Amino acid sequence: MKVGLVLEGGAARGVFTAGVLDYWMEQGLMFPYIAGVSIGACNAMDYISGQPGRTRDCMIHTDKKYAYCGIGTFLRKGHLFDLDKPFDDFPNRDFLFDYDTYFASGTEREYVCSNCETGRPEYLSDDGKSRERLMLIGRASSALPGASPVVFIENVPYVDGGITDSIPVRRAFEKGCDKVVVVQTRRNSFRMKPSKTAKAIARMYREYPRMGENLLNRPKVYNRTLADIRRWEKEGRVFAIRPELPEVKRMEREYHTLMRFYAHGYWLAQKLYPELLSFMG
Prior knowledge:
By secondary structure, the chain is α/β, with parallel strands linked by helices. It has helices at residues 14-27, 39-48, 54-59, 71-77, 84-94, 99-104, 131-141, 169-174, 198-203, 209-234, 255-280, and strands at residues 3-7, 33-37, 108-115, 121-124, 151-153, 156-160, 179-183, 238-241. Strands 1, 2, 3, 4, 5, 6, 7 and 8 form an 8-stranded mixed sheet that branches. Helix 1 (14-27) links the parallel strand 1 (3-7) and strand 2. Helix 1 (14-27) crosses helix 11 (255-280). It is globular and about 50 Å long.
């Protein structure tokens, strides 16, 4: 049986996923197929490289030199998110990424990016050897519209994969998975509402009108995905892990708040582990 793993994005909420994956790494649990979106892509990379604690350390810190979002970043870079830090400074200097272990892994992996020209999600894979391509894909998957610049890969413009496929469970089934484990970063009661800023951000993408349409339609598409996940759970095809505590804000930076949410993910993974193993057979 092929069991896949899907990791949702959510910026700072990704520390919950980091806690879940750190517990699984300690247990030696791995999946044959993994799909990650935005911060979920970063989580997936650290999971495949077998580095428990790395995502946590990259995201939760008190030293301002490691900050990569906020007003200070905007003044320095002209964007709210400085993608150079998590995809260049951190992996190559500050919080070294284990490229060798990552590329030696037999896990099939895909990272969701939104093609600005077509308005469609694309599921990109590294070529198994290029460090630069791997981090470029991670950067594209995490390029939040309105807060990060468009990322070009082979002359194709991409932004955050969450805009077009926030939780790619259907993709995992298309790739031959019999069952799928999903780590979400919002509680079960959450339903996405239209954003007050979506229209303003969509206007920033006049060059890519399909992306503007996606931004406005995202709540409907996202909520439909949630309904599919709940249906597949009842059918025994999906096992979802979600926070039970109120989730942190997307731009949360307070150290103790983030550490509590990370610890909640670790605790919940431990609590549900026997049930997960039963699901996986």
